[in-house]
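I hope you will forgive my troubling you with a question about protein structure. You will find the record immediately after this paragraph.
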Amino acid sequence: MNTPNKKPTVSPTRGRRNRTFHKVTGLCLTLPVLLLVLTGIPLELSSQLKLGSTGVPFIWVHKAYGIELPEQAFVQDGVIELDGLFLVGDNMRSVAFHGQFLAASAQPNFTMILTDKEWLLVAQDPSITVDRGDYPAPITDASFGAGIPMIATEHGPLNSTDYGASWHPASATLDAWPAPSSFQPDRNTQAAYGAALVNWERWLQDLHSGRFFGEVGTWVMTAAGAAFLLLAISGLLLWVRSLQR
């Protein structure tokens, strides 16, 4: 007598273990998935949001990157110099420069800065490119007289009535060449300095990969990637077993 073929039975214990593993793995991935989503979406829109040119203002983030304020800071007419970086105006626009900071003069819409290597015109509007140029001869000092830039050279003092476009012998010299003063940075300066070194795109990329949390964070995100693969496999097995019932 022929007996009908029976479908292979699935071990209920094995199925329960698979479901438990699937649930526990999914629960453990909640935070990594949330972090990936919260960082991945703005990174995809990085160009539109201008994340690469916008600094992170949080001091605790700067400290996590090991960013510390330089021991020496100098200021003159709204320009703060910190280790090769200028913070200019009320909005503390950051500008990299070359040479030694010698003088600065704030005008209604821009600030002119003189170093021993170059002059700079920094607009208040950060979207306007910084204009900079060289001097006609090596200089030994620089300052401003009535808002007009003046430099000291081995051939005598020169000044510029067109903000650096051309330089001419000065008819008079300055009695003193006041240098920038020492400055004790406050919390706002510290935040602006750190923001000039860490932008949102970099920070979000480091959060996305786990690098921001050090070696442990990298291993956690790597493990999360492996867990995603296992989650997909266990989910596929659960689906196949559901068809066999």
